[in-house]
Amino acid sequence: MKEHAWSIPLPEEESFTKALVEMSNDAILVFDQEGRIEYVNKMAELFTEKGEGELIGENVFPLLGEGAKEILKELRKPGDKICQEMAVEIPRGKRKFAYCCFLLVDRDEESSRFCAYLSDITERKTFEERLKESERRYRELFERVREGLFISTVEGKFIDCNQALLDMLGYSSKEEFLKIDIAKDLYADPKERERFQRMMERDGYVKEWEVEFKRKDGSRITVLLSAEAIRDRDGRIIGYEGINIDITQRKKLERELRETNDFLKSLIESSPYAIIAADIKGNVIVFNRAAEELLGYKAEEVLGKIHITQLYPPGIAREVMRKLRSSDYGGVGRFTGSEFTVMNKWGEEIPIHLSAAIVYRDGEEVGSVGVFTDLRPKIAMEKQLQETQMQLLQSEKLRALGEMAAGVAHEINNPLGGILIYASLLMEDLPEDDPKRADLEKIVQETTRCKEIVKSLLEFARQSGPKMEPTDVNKAITDVLLFLENQATFHNIEIVKELDPFLPKIQGNAGQLKQVFMNIMINAADAMHGKGTLTIRTRLSEDEKEVIIEFTDTGEGIPEDVLPKIFDPFFTTKGVGKGTGLGLSM
């Protein structure tokens, strides 16, 4: 199993991280367990006096010395670090001194990766050697160093300092500065002075310790403090000498970069649109919460594990990249948007609108980013709007049909009444055994059926609303059953009533409700061909705002192709002369 000391940054983070690394005052080298150099920053090239790119692939041990191999053996797990001063061999036989920190970055069963931070201390070494040569040379160099140098006592007073330290801390004269109390007037937190002294007692030196100092005006600066203990002949520490490097601006920049990075991350994560980015190889490297909701994956299932092409139907990802590289769809590197489909975790295609862009670094493509908008709500809304338009058209059609039906019904109702009266009169004058009597009976029967159709038309076309009053639904159902149970069609049908006895009354028209219930029950009997079970249930809805009436029969059911038409006027599946097609429409 591979162990890591660092996390792998996203491209945005990598840019920030690389910028910080390149800004570092330290030379940084990353190499494998064989010593092959994989990465160096600009400072490393300057430190080793190598040209750009010359260090990559070289072996690090000739540079750092064979002693570095022994140090690396002591690094057991990712995160372990060993720091020490050492000589560094550079081209043309030159030697530099560095304070080198070795860090084990990651390790698995087959390989390890290390990082070395080299702080150039050659100048300090030279400075120390010159101090031994003469007091004059010491003073000259002491004052020329651009970082703040000091000599202080254990008790907390400065003995000497250079002009750079005075400028750094805002003091105009050395005399004034030498009178301050170090713990109280210099350290932002006096406890840090105690910590400094404990490290000195323990190690005899402090190397690049980050600490906050107070300037004369009370403002704070961050410095890297390096110091050595001054000892008497008996080895007792009697003072300290060292150097302070102002890194306030560097810390500010680091903080601003970190805050900017955090803001960008928050912006991406909080976006209501799915944002997905991939590197130049197609590996997904950004996958925000909206993308998780759209595609059903968790970010940890996707990042570094899924290729961007897996999120599209076959060929679509290539089409997107082709359009991104073309100038015809918003300019090279940009795609202003079009509708595509993407594949979710379960292999379902989801319609989306995609806007995308290529990410460049130094003019080279390093990745792509896309903003995905889920089109399902829009499509559902358009479908709902279309259905509403169809309903409006149907309502207008029914209104026109109702007006026509009313006119036709009124026009033919009187002639039908005349036919019925005169046929009945003729029947009365004929003896029972007259063969014409059967014909007249047929005329009366068919005329009566025509009048029933006309009556249904008039009821369907009625323009005025029914009288609404408190109505007992259970009673309306019972009244209909009392009438139907004696009909021959219902003799072999078992009727099961599951009526809620506590059902409240509703605002409705009992007569029309009875007509509706009767039509449904007759249709059920026809569907069961006169034999089966009809179950009728009434109940309140869960929110107790509606009354629900359910009819269930054991008939053959309604074919799916017929279901959309059952409420259309004059539509019926019954044979000729057996149905008007107005029962459910009414």
How would you sum up this structure, described in words?
Helix 1 (11-23) runs antiparallel to helix 11 and helix 15 (376-429) runs antiparallel to helix 16. The chain is α+β, with helices and mostly antiparallel strands and 586 residues long. It has helices at residues 11-23, 42-48, 61-64, 67-73, 122-133, 135-144, 163-169, 174-178, 182-186, 190-203, 248-270, 289-295, 299-302, 316-324, 376-429, 436-460, 473-484, 510-527; strands at residues 3-4, 27-32, 37-40, 81-90, 94-107, 112-120, 148-153, 158-161, 205-214, 220-231, 237-246, 274-279, 284-287, 334-343, 349-361, 364-374, 469-471, 493-499, 506-508, 532-540, 547-553. Helices cover 40% and strands 27% of the residues.
| Estimated share of beta-strand residues | 25-35%
**Terminal CA distance:** 74 Å
**Based on helices, strands and strand pairing, what is the structural class?**
alpha+beta
Total DSSP E strands: 21
Q: Count of DSSP helices?
A: 18
Unreliable runs, pLDDT <50, ≥5 residues? 4-11
Helix share bin = 40-55%
Largest sheet: 6 strands, antiparallel
**Global outline:** elongated
Question: Overall pLDDT, averaged?
Answer: 82
- Rg, alpha carbons: 47 Å
